[in-house]
Write a structure and sequence with these properties.
The protein is mostly helical and about 120 residues long. The protein is about 85% helix and about 0% strand. It contains 4 helices and no strands. The protein is rod-shaped, with a radius of gyration of 26 Å.
């Protein structure tokens, strides 16, 4: 009787250990690669800290995928996606600030021209 209990317990533990393995995060890797490409497409470069981090973490996630360390790969890919989205937001914010400064300069010129006309 005791041997059967030990055997059943051992099999149950093995089954639980098998369930604990993380699946390969293929979808997360795809989303992360898209986020990095999108950030690059709008002008994010490695000069932006967040973009540099995104690319480094994505490279490490690929390495972890090759090593079948899927949990670590998923975490790094998620972080890389967030970093890429931050880099994209920083680029877009910078572009918006440039446009705003240009509009302010135009308004100032127009006001000056209108003032000169009076």
């Amino acid at each position: 009787m005791i041997d059967k209990r030990i055997l059943v317990t051992g099999l149950a533990l093995l089954a639980l250990a098998g369930c604990a393995n993380d699946p390969a995060p293929h979808e997360q890797m795809r989303l992360t690669e898209q986020a990095v490409e999108q950030a690059r497409a709008i002008g994010a470069t490695e000069e932006i800290e967040a973009m540099r981090l995104a690319e480094q973490k994505l490279a490490r996630a690929h390495k972890n995928m090759a090593e079948e360390d899927y949990k670590r790969a998923r975490v790094l890919a998620e972080q890389a996606e967030l970093d890429a989205r931050l880099a994209e937001a920083q680029v877009l914010t910078g572009k918006s600030e440039e446009q705003l400064a240009e509009l302010k300069a135009r308004i100032t010129r127009l006001r000056k021209q209108l003032g000169d006309m009076q």
